[in-house]
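User: Hi! I'm working on a homework problem where we have to compare a predicted structure to a textbook description. Could you give me the structure for the chain below?
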Amino acid sequence: MSSLTHVVTGESFASLGYQFRVGKTTVHRIVKTTSNAIWETLQPHYMPVPNEHQWKEIAKNYFEKCNIPCCVGAIDGKHCRLKCPSGTGFLFYNYKGYHSIVLLAIADANCCFTLIDVGSYGRNSDSPVFTESNMGKQFLSRNLDIPQSSELGEQQASMETSVKVAEPLVNSICVLNNFIHNLKQTPIVQAQA
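Assistant: Happy to help. Predicted C-alpha coordinates:
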Protein backbone atom coordinates (compact mmCIF):
# COMPACT_ATOMS: atom_id res chain seq x y z
CA MET A 1 0.00 0.00 0.00
CA SER A 2 2.84 2.43 0.79
CA SER A 3 4.26 1.92 -2.74
CA LEU A 4 1.01 2.89 -4.42
CA THR A 5 0.53 5.82 -2.05
CA HIS A 6 3.99 7.11 -2.97
CA VAL A 7 3.36 6.69 -6.72
CA VAL A 8 -0.05 8.38 -6.60
CA THR A 9 0.72 11.23 -4.18
CA GLY A 10 4.49 11.64 -4.32
CA GLU A 11 4.47 11.63 -0.54
CA SER A 12 7.88 11.32 1.14
CA PHE A 13 9.16 7.98 2.40
CA ALA A 14 9.51 9.42 5.90
CA SER A 15 5.84 10.46 5.93
CA LEU A 16 4.76 7.07 4.58
CA GLY A 17 6.83 5.35 7.26
CA TYR A 18 5.05 7.40 9.89
CA GLN A 19 1.60 6.64 8.42
CA PHE A 20 2.17 2.90 8.14
CA ARG A 21 4.30 2.69 11.32
CA VAL A 22 7.39 1.32 9.61
CA GLY A 23 10.90 2.70 9.19
CA LYS A 24 12.02 4.79 6.23
CA THR A 25 14.37 1.99 5.11
CA THR A 26 11.45 -0.45 5.13
CA VAL A 27 9.42 1.93 2.95
CA HIS A 28 12.38 2.13 0.50
CA ARG A 29 12.53 -1.67 0.32
CA ILE A 30 8.74 -2.01 -0.12
CA VAL A 31 8.61 0.61 -2.90
CA LYS A 32 11.57 -0.94 -4.74
CA THR A 33 10.22 -4.50 -4.44
CA THR A 34 6.70 -3.50 -5.49
CA SER A 35 7.95 -1.40 -8.41
CA ASN A 36 10.11 -4.27 -9.69
CA ALA A 37 7.17 -6.69 -9.36
CA ILE A 38 4.87 -4.34 -11.30
CA TRP A 39 7.47 -3.95 -14.08
CA GLU A 40 8.25 -7.66 -14.34
CA THR A 41 4.57 -8.61 -14.37
CA LEU A 42 3.12 -5.96 -16.69
CA GLN A 43 5.98 -5.07 -19.07
CA PRO A 44 5.78 -8.25 -21.19
CA HIS A 45 2.05 -7.62 -21.75
CA TYR A 46 1.80 -3.83 -21.95
CA MET A 47 5.22 -2.71 -23.22
CA PRO A 48 6.84 -5.56 -25.14
CA VAL A 49 9.46 -4.69 -27.75
CA PRO A 50 7.45 -4.35 -30.97
CA ASN A 51 7.91 -6.89 -33.74
CA GLU A 52 8.01 -6.05 -37.45
CA HIS A 53 4.22 -6.20 -37.84
CA GLN A 54 3.69 -3.93 -34.81
CA TRP A 55 6.22 -1.39 -36.12
CA LYS A 56 4.24 -1.26 -39.38
CA GLU A 57 1.03 -0.68 -37.40
CA ILE A 58 2.70 2.12 -35.42
CA ALA A 59 3.84 3.76 -38.70
CA LYS A 60 0.34 3.37 -40.17
CA ASN A 61 -1.20 5.03 -37.09
CA TYR A 62 1.27 7.92 -37.24
CA PHE A 63 0.37 8.49 -40.87
CA GLU A 64 -3.41 8.26 -40.23
CA LYS A 65 -3.44 10.41 -37.07
CA CYS A 66 -0.60 12.85 -37.69
CA ASN A 67 -0.01 12.68 -41.46
CA ILE A 68 3.63 11.78 -40.79
CA PRO A 69 4.87 9.06 -43.14
CA CYS A 70 7.35 6.34 -42.15
CA CYS A 71 7.37 7.31 -38.46
CA VAL A 72 7.73 4.53 -35.87
CA GLY A 73 7.91 6.71 -32.78
CA ALA A 74 8.45 10.04 -31.12
CA ILE A 75 11.40 10.18 -28.74
CA ASP A 76 12.10 12.53 -25.86
CA GLY A 77 13.82 12.64 -22.51
CA LYS A 78 12.48 13.64 -19.10
CA HIS A 79 14.54 14.48 -16.03
CA CYS A 80 13.19 12.65 -12.97
CA ARG A 81 14.19 14.62 -9.87
CA LEU A 82 16.04 12.80 -7.09
CA LYS A 83 18.09 13.47 -3.99
CA CYS A 84 21.78 13.66 -4.84
CA PRO A 85 23.42 10.26 -4.25
CA SER A 86 26.40 10.66 -1.95
CA GLY A 87 29.83 10.67 -3.57
CA THR A 88 28.56 11.32 -7.11
CA GLY A 89 29.59 14.95 -7.48
CA PHE A 90 27.92 16.49 -10.50
CA LEU A 91 27.04 13.26 -12.36
CA PHE A 92 23.34 13.62 -11.59
CA TYR A 93 23.23 17.46 -11.68
CA ASN A 94 21.37 18.62 -14.79
CA TYR A 95 21.19 21.88 -16.74
CA LYS A 96 17.88 22.69 -15.04
CA GLY A 97 19.64 23.10 -11.71
CA TYR A 98 18.70 19.94 -9.82
CA HIS A 99 19.78 16.30 -9.51
CA SER A 100 18.02 13.75 -11.71
CA ILE A 101 18.07 10.56 -13.69
CA VAL A 102 16.87 10.55 -17.28
CA LEU A 103 13.81 8.74 -18.61
CA LEU A 104 14.26 8.45 -22.38
CA ALA A 105 11.11 7.18 -24.07
CA ILE A 106 9.76 6.39 -27.51
CA ALA A 107 5.98 6.71 -27.89
CA ASP A 108 3.53 5.64 -30.57
CA ALA A 109 0.81 7.80 -32.17
CA ASN A 110 -1.52 6.97 -29.26
CA CYS A 111 1.02 8.39 -26.77
CA CYS A 112 1.75 4.91 -25.37
CA PHE A 113 5.36 4.06 -24.58
CA THR A 114 6.93 1.51 -26.91
CA LEU A 115 10.52 1.57 -25.58
CA ILE A 116 12.07 3.26 -22.55
CA ASP A 117 15.45 3.67 -20.90
CA VAL A 118 15.67 4.84 -17.29
CA GLY A 119 18.65 5.71 -15.14
CA SER A 120 21.19 7.72 -17.11
CA TYR A 121 22.95 10.53 -15.29
CA GLY A 122 21.02 13.80 -15.23
CA ARG A 123 23.98 15.72 -16.67
CA ASN A 124 23.61 13.87 -19.99
CA SER A 125 21.50 15.19 -22.85
CA ASP A 126 19.15 13.03 -24.92
CA SER A 127 21.60 12.14 -27.69
CA PRO A 128 24.30 10.45 -25.57
CA VAL A 129 21.62 8.86 -23.39
CA PHE A 130 20.11 7.31 -26.53
CA THR A 131 23.40 6.09 -28.05
CA GLU A 132 24.56 4.56 -24.75
CA SER A 133 21.19 2.98 -23.83
CA ASN A 134 20.29 -0.62 -24.60
CA MET A 135 17.40 0.70 -26.72
CA GLY A 136 19.77 2.96 -28.70
CA LYS A 137 22.36 0.25 -29.21
CA GLN A 138 19.65 -2.15 -30.43
CA PHE A 139 18.32 0.52 -32.80
CA LEU A 140 21.72 1.52 -34.17
CA SER A 141 22.71 -2.12 -34.74
CA ARG A 142 19.33 -2.73 -36.48
CA ASN A 143 18.23 -5.40 -34.01
CA LEU A 144 14.71 -4.06 -33.32
CA ASP A 145 12.99 -5.57 -36.40
CA ILE A 146 12.07 -2.10 -37.67
CA PRO A 147 11.12 -2.48 -41.35
CA GLN A 148 12.87 -0.50 -44.07
CA SER A 149 11.15 2.83 -44.79
CA SER A 150 9.96 1.48 -48.16
CA GLU A 151 7.93 -1.14 -46.25
CA LEU A 152 6.28 1.44 -43.98
CA GLY A 153 4.00 3.06 -46.52
CA GLU A 154 3.98 6.08 -48.77
CA GLN A 155 7.27 7.73 -49.49
CA GLN A 156 7.48 11.48 -49.78
CA ALA A 157 9.78 13.26 -52.22
CA SER A 158 12.59 15.22 -50.62
CA MET A 159 12.40 19.00 -50.73
CA GLU A 160 14.41 20.38 -53.59
CA THR A 161 15.23 23.68 -51.95
CA SER A 162 17.84 25.38 -49.80
CA VAL A 163 18.04 25.17 -46.02
CA LYS A 164 17.03 28.85 -45.87
CA VAL A 165 13.70 27.96 -47.51
CA ALA A 166 13.27 24.45 -46.07
CA GLU A 167 13.47 25.53 -42.41
CA PRO A 168 10.64 28.11 -42.54
CA LEU A 169 8.64 25.78 -44.80
CA VAL A 170 8.84 22.91 -42.28
CA ASN A 171 8.06 25.36 -39.44
CA SER A 172 4.95 26.58 -41.27
CA ILE A 173 3.80 23.03 -42.04
CA CYS A 174 4.08 22.10 -38.35
CA VAL A 175 2.19 25.14 -37.12
CA LEU A 176 -0.47 24.68 -39.81
CA ASN A 177 -0.87 21.06 -38.71
CA ASN A 178 -1.60 22.23 -35.15
CA PHE A 179 -3.86 25.01 -36.44
CA ILE A 180 -5.94 22.55 -38.49
CA HIS A 181 -6.04 20.08 -35.59
CA ASN A 182 -7.27 22.91 -33.33
CA LEU A 183 -9.95 23.92 -35.86
CA LYS A 184 -11.48 20.48 -35.54
CA GLN A 185 -11.86 20.98 -31.79
CA THR A 186 -12.81 24.66 -31.35
CA PRO A 187 -14.85 27.14 -33.40
CA ILE A 188 -13.07 29.95 -35.19
CA VAL A 189 -13.24 33.32 -33.44
CA GLN A 190 -13.43 36.23 -35.90
CA ALA A 191 -10.91 38.99 -35.31
CA GLN A 192 -12.45 42.46 -35.10
CA ALA A 193 -11.07 45.08 -37.47
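For your comparison, note the following. The chain has two domains: 2-46, 52-151. Residues 63 and 69 are 5 Å apart (CA to CA). Good luck with the assignment!
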